[in-house]
Design goal:
Layout: H1 22-90, H2 100-112, E1 116-123, E2 126-130, E3 134-139, H3 140-143, E4 154-157, E5 168-174, E6 179-186, H4 187-194, E7 202-209, E8 212-215, E9 220-221, E10 232-235, E11 240-246, H5 250-296, E12 300-309, E13 315-326, E14 330-332, H6 334-343, H7 347-364, E15 373-377, H8 386-401, E16 405-411, H9 412-418, H10 421-433, E17 437-443, H11 450-455, E18 460-463, H12 465-468, H13 475-490, E19 494-497, H14 503-511, E20 516-517, H15 528-531
Amino acid sequence: MFRRATLRADMPDEAAMPRPASSSQRGYAARRKVLIILALAVPLLVANYGMYAWSSLAVRKELNSIAQSVEDQASNALGSAGQTATEVANARYSQRGCFLGTVQLLQLKALSSPYVRSLNLVRDGKISCSSVGGAVNIPVDLFAPGLRLQTGSVLLMRSHWFGLEAPGIAYVHMRDDHDGVIAVMHEQFFRDMTTLPGKDRYRSVVLRLGHQYVYDEGGMKDSPPKFVNQWVAKRGPGDLEVFVEASDKLRMMYLTDSVVTWNLIAIAIGLLLALAVNFYYVRGRSFERMLRLAIVNRDIVPFYQPVYHAEGAVLEGVEILARWYNRGEGYISPDVFIPYAERMNLIDALTLSLIQQVRHDLEHSFRLPPGSNVALNVPPSMFDKPEMIAALEQFSRFLQGNGLRLLLEVTERQFVEHADTERIQGFFDWLHQQGILIALDDFGTGYSSMGYLNRFSFDYLKIDGVFVNGIGASPTAEGLLDTIIQLAQKLGMKTIAEKVENKEQVLYLVDRQVNCIQGYYYAKPVSAAELAQYIPDQPPRPIVPDPVPSWLADEERAD
C-alpha cells in the first residue's frame, strides 16, 4: 500500500535539504511585496480619508461659528431696540398726547439707541405720534403693511412712511391690546452683519427677519434663498434666522493647508511599517537559514525524557524531544522552531536528523532495557511521503533489533486537520504490521472528537498536563481527568500522564490505574550522556519514590 524509499546513512548537506517549492518561494516573495505595498499605501489612504473627513468637520465648524456670530449681532440689535421700545411703552407716552415735549422725548430715546431710527407710538391700531413725523394719525396697515401688532414681531420696510430714504426694520412691543411702540431700525446695520471679510470663503450670508430675507449683497426678498453649495449652516429661533453658505474654495483651503503635513506623516508611518515588514521577512529568512544550518550541523539534538510504568516506577521507555542551543541566541524553544520548520518544509530533515542521532546514541551512549518504548513525535503530513515512511520503517527495525519498540506520537490538533478516515486507518494498520505503536498526544486540549478516537486504532492515549495539574486543586479538572482515563480504558488503550510533578499526582493516577507516568517528579528531559543514570542495572524498587529530585525547584519546567 505504501511505497518505500531507501534512507541514506548520512545526512544530506544544506544544498540537498528539502526546500520550499519554487512556487512557495514565489508566493513568499509575492506576500512580502504585497505587504510592503500595503504598508506604504494604507497610511496614505487612511491619512487622506481622515483629511477628507476632517476638512468636512472643519468647514461645518467654521460655518456654524460664523452663523452664530451673525445671529448674536442680530439678536443684540433686536434686543437693544426691544429694550428701548419697552421703556417707551412702559412710560405710557401714548397716553400723554402727541405734544412737542412728547416728540422730543421720543427723539431723545431714539438717539440713545445705536440701532433705532425712529420711535412710533401705537394706539388703537394707528400711529398717533412719531419721533420723526410728530403728531400723525396713520393706520398701522398703511404705515407697515403686513406688520402684526404683537410683541416681538419684525418686518422689513422697503420704504419709510416719513420720507427717510433707506428702508428700515420695524420691531413691535405692545404694552396691552391698545397701546404699544413700533421701533424702526436701520436696515444697513443688518446688511453690514451679513457682509463678512474673506469673500472667497463664503458664497452668501442671508439673514431672515420674520418672513423676509436680508442678503449680504444688498436688498430684501420675500422668498427664501437658494443655495448651490452643500455646505450651509443655519442658526436662530423664531423670527430670526441666519444662513451661511460656503464657497467652492473653502473646503479646498483646508485640504491645501494640511495635505502636505498629513501626507508627510503618512509617508513616514508607511516607511516605518514597510521597514518593519521587510525586517520581519528578512529575519524570517535569516532564521530559516540558521535553522537549516542547525539541522545540517546537528545543533538540534535529541533529549530524552524517561517514561515510567505507574506501578513500581519501572522504566517504560523514553520520549525523544528536540533541543536547540544557539551560540548567538541561546536556548530556542521547540514551540518556536518546530512550527517554523513545519511551515518552511524543514520538518522532514529535522526528523531524519533526530532519528540518526538517536541511533548513534543507542549504539554508543546508552542501552535501554528490553521491551522499552522509544516515542517520537511526527506530524501526520509525513504519512504521505514515501521517503519518511521508509525512514520510520528502518528506524523501527533498528529498534526491534535492540529489543525496543517505536511509538509514534500524533498530536490531536494535527491529527484532526489531516484526518482522512480510510487513508489514515490503512496507514495505522500498516504501522501495526511493522510492530510500530501509535499514541494520540495532548488529548483533551484541542478538538477532542470521540468519533475519530473510536474509529482509529491508537495504542496509547497521552493525557495532557492541564488535567494533571488540577489534581487536588480543581474538582472540575479531576472529573474531566477521570472521564478521559475511563474512556481510554473502555476503548482498550493504555494511558500516559504527562507533566507529573508531585507525589499526590502520582498516587492519584496510580489509584485510577493509569499505565504510565512522565514528568519532572521522575525525570526531566536529559541528554544522552545524562540518561544513563536513569537506566537501572538491576530491577528498580517496587515503590513510589518519596523525595522530589533536588533539581525540581531549580530547573526550568519544559516538556
